[in-house]
Amino acid sequence: MNAPILRRLDELRAMTRPWTLAGARIGVVPTMGALHDGHLSLVAEAKALCDRVIVTIFVNPRQFNNPDDLANYPRTEEEDARKLRRFDVDALWVPEPDQMYPPHFATTVSVAGLTDVMEGAARPGHFDGVATVVTKLLSQTAATDAFFGEKDFQQFLVVRRMAADLDLPVTIHPCPTIRDIDGLALSSRNLLLSDRARTRAPVLHDEMDRVADGLRRGGDFEALAAQARARLEKAGFSHVDYLDLRAQENLACMTSPDRPARLFAAARLAGVRLIDNIAVNDQIAL
Ligand code: AMP
User: Fold this and answer.
1) Which of 77, 144, 231, 253 is the most buried (most CB within 10 A)?
2) Is 205 part of the annotated catalytic residue set?
3) Distance from the alpha carbon of residue 149 to the mean position of ligand 1, in angstroms
């Protein structure tokens, strides 16, 4: 069934008020649209755990530090609504920009520490934009549960910290990264890759796997990372922004995986910036 598409906050509140009064679990899946199977896995998890499910679609200008990236970001609302039909969600929240950022809007939610590194360092202001919009989306939707992909692991940690620090009455659920058959993590930005670049893109995950295997065999991280960077550049990646081994819990830098660790990478291929991360030792509960 087609879910109603709500664009104004008063419509959304009218819909969620009775759900909240009835004590329903309201699951929310925040997205920027251009939905793929990664997003849909979050929707399936929300449907499994919650009484009501709202998918939000909002291309949030405040989390883009590059105007071209914002302008080029794929927008496919009709197609997104069609993909959601089989999940029978209760509503799509697709706010008009003025519903999110009315004139005189002056508040920023900023999470310290976790945002200093990787995506935070590479994209100034990005996580302030994310934390601010997610705080608003969770408040607007009266979410009791919210679902985030491990694909953006740093984002998941930032959102979880923000929700805990602000005492938001919501559980933040991490969901595993969904990959294409060749290992490339699904991402809306993959649509921007040329056919030629798309065939090379899985090298990022291949090289990360190779580093993780090397670490499990006791290899030296710096040496493994240097080899991976060289192979990525040979495969056509123009720049590796970072290839870091970090503690899963707090993103502290590590050189050997002596506690739960993840390997994180960001690299540019034919003008498209790809990010990925994988666990390098046994997963613990997040
Ligand atoms: P986005 O639309 O890129 O902002 O992503 C919306 C949500 O979907 C975020 O929580 C992402 O982490 C999640 N997501 C994006 N790609 C994937 C993927 N390949 N597997 C799982 N979750 C994903």
Assistant:
1) 144
2) no
3) 5
Q: Is the pLDDT of residue 283 over 60?
A: no
Please give the mean pLDDT across all residues of the chain: 96
Q: Is the pLDDT of residue 121 over 90?
A: yes
Q: List pLDDT tens digits, range 199-233.
A: 999 999 999 999 999 999 999 999 999 999 999 99
Among protein residues, the one whose CA lies closest to atom 18 of ligand 1: 38
- Does the beta carbon of 177 lie inside 6 Å of ligand 1? yes
Protein residue with its CA nearest to atom 13 in ligand 1: 149
Mean pLDDT (whole number) for 22-35: 98
Mutate to test the pocket of ligand 1, among 29, 43, 151, 192 (most ligand atoms within 8 A of CB): 151
Provide the pLDDT for residue 153: 98
Could you please report the per-residue DSSP string of the chain?
-PPPEE-SHHHHHHHHHHHHHTT--EEEEEE-S---HHHHHHHHHHHHH-SEEEEEE---GGG-S-HHHHHHS---HHHHHHHHGGGT-SEEE---HHHHS-TT--------STTSSTHHHHSTTHHHHHHHHHHHHHHHHT-SEEEEEGGGHHHHHHHHHHHHHTT-S-EEEEEPPPB-TTSPBP-GGGGGS-HHHHHHTTHHHHHHHHHHHHHHTT--HHHHHHHHHHHHHHTTEEEEEEEEEEETTT--B-SS-SSSEEEEEEEEETTEEEEEEEE-S-----
